[in-house]
User: What shape does this take?
Amino acid sequence: MDLLETDGERLLTAVRALLERKGVVSAAEIAERRAATDNASPGQGAKMVAKAWLEPDFKALMLADGTKAAEALDIPMRGMPPLGVLEQTPEVHNLVVCTLCSCYPRAVLGYPPFWYKSAAYRARAIRDPRELLASEWKTVVPDSVKLRVVDSTADYRWMVLPMRPTGTEGWDAARLASIVREGDMIGVTVPSA
Amino acid sequence: MFAPGERVRVKDQWPEQHGPVHIRTPYYVRGVEGEVVRHLGDFANPEDLAFARPAAKLPLYHVRFRKDRIWPEKQPDDELLIEIFGHWLEKP
Assistant: This one.
């Protein structure tokens, strides 16, 4: 008995062969999607953020249509849910959660961090978000700032555009992208120089 | 169709009490009033998709709720922004 040959593996092979034989999807298309999924990482979202910090036109595009902005940076979005982008401002701090399951903008941020899918994060983010951010991430949202929790419940996927931190004047796109972490684009943390 | 800025209420309905369902409307906003921010587009009804039934495309809205309408806190201006399908919304 081959321990690596599981029932699930055999089922997957059979279904893939059937999909190809029936012309539903080709092996090349499956390979393309697997590559896109494996290559997706927070680095892609960070590139979008850095470009938005440098180019007002790109920022406007990103806030109006996140999918088009991602495609402008050659991030594969075909077949992906539409991407929406939420802007952090001095007045509003956005925090993304999916209370129903684990919807996440995988095309631009990759696989979600383990805690994003936890029942604890999902419950606390919606019930007591300020306490959650302060106790788990040391992110204190000032009382004067509105906290907006975005519950990703349906067909969109949401990422956060953080504010550019002070002390980054004159930085190029690569250096700016290097300080943007996945948490900054979920809204649990804020970037610093 | 609902317009941006329009007051709406999420229907206080609990179809999960009557059999298997797949619903994208969180429990905690059922019966709660909010405000339409914008129409996000039309998407296949997940309540049918999940059961492999023909699924009509329905309008999906971004709806804003004051947090203190759901869980009163010392920050009454905090808010929740949630995607809600049009068939779950009614005029208050």
Q: What stands out?
A: The first helix of chain B runs from residue 46 to 49. The radius of gyration of chain B is 14 Å.
